[in-house]
Amino acid sequence: MFRKRINADEARELFLNSFPPIPEIEVLPIEACDGRIIAENIIASIDVPHYRRAAMDGFAVIASETLGAGPGSPVMLRLANTIEKGTCVRVHTGSPMPEGADAVVMMEDTELLDDRVQILAQIHPFKNVGAIGEDVRKGELIQERGHKLRPCDIAVLASLGIRSLKVFRRPLVVIIPTGEELVQRDKKYLKPGEVYETNGLMASMYVKKWGCDVRLLKIVTDSPDLIKEAILSNLDADMVITSGGTSVGKRDYVPAVVDSIGKLLVHGVGISPGKPTALGIIEGKPVVCMPGYPVAGIVALFYFARSAIRKLGNIPDEQDRIVRAELSEKITGRTGYKTFARVKLDNGKAIPLSTSGAGILSSVSKADGFVILPENVEGFNAGEEVDIVLIE
Q1: Are 371 and 330 in contact (CB under 8 A)?
Q2: Domain coordinates of the chain in residue numbers?
Q3: What is the pLDDT of residues 2-43, one digit of tens each?
Q4: Distance CA 35, CA 147 (A)
């Protein structure tokens, strides 16, 4: 039987407080750090740029010598290799500024006449000049520990001459699909009562997307001993996700197995779909037991496993992507449960697909997101504007 049903938010808080983040750090080439979590503060050791540079193709000048220049009253300067009164020097974008020059006239505002240059625009000091440290100042904090690195971040770090970075180790998540009715996807013909295993596939792809390494096991049949063996032989992983076997039928052994070798924290959560979700800890490793019905499974995966992965991997929390839309028809919730109603977006309207039917996986595939109804809300009426949490 289910343990006492627990509020969804309370269940998640209890679960997340039961294990620590992964402390291990590894050193990787900077090219391999996209999407990784940096494990150290980075202080700039040099200025970028470390020299005054031209920001445009054109001619380096003393700005005061362009006073009054315009298309009808050009100023004539002599083209030279050094700057002195009455001269200019040809420069390209990124070129070092010649000593004595304090501005660059863009090529478009000049005319070259043999060894003379007509200046057709007045400019002020420092115009089109990149100062030392304009991009990054020596001693500046560039990245803080715990930041998820993006390609643009890596490019800035590379501009400092950094070749490798300390990053937190990725979590390794083992995924164990269970069930007598499941068959591997390479089987050509299905018998009545057989279904292809898809929950493990789906979970493994989301877990990879969320920043983990994944070990997806072959199907484990509904046997307490085999389920126990599969879990215990994979505790080198940082987290265990099982699929199926969490309800109260004769073949639903997973929560009891977790309790026998670890600690079952929760079995029965106030989410719909997803009530049979179980959460536990084995040898300090978090365990998420997804219900076998696919939609219930994906709700448990998003609501519990994703949060656990973020904590394990030192990954900063990301806000859900939410859009507002008007309901095309009424949706109802389940009192006492946080209800995840699938909706499709169409021209600013939210079209409900289902609030029930936990086995209809295609309803998630067709959906753009969920309307999440709180436990104390019976429903939302047609025409109401609601928040939609996007799946992707």
Answers
A1: no
A2: 8-23+170-312, 25-48+134-168, 53-130, 322-390
A3: 567 899 999 999 999 999 999 999 999 999 999 999 999 999
A4: 9
**CATH (residue range 25-48+134-168):** 3.90.105.10
Task: Provide CATH code, domain 53-130.
Answer: 2.170.190.11
Lowest mean pLDDT of 185-199, 238-252, 348-362, name the range: 348-362
Q: How far apart are CA 118 and CA 98, in angstroms?
A: 19
Q: 8-23+170-312 is classed in which CATH architecture?
A: 3-Layer(aba) Sandwich (3.40)
**Residue 75: beta bridge partners?**
119
Put simply, whether the predicted model's pTM sits higher than 0.70 gets the answer yes
Mean pLDDT over residues 319-332, rounded?
92
**In terms of CATH architecture, what is 322-390?**
Beta Barrel (2.40)
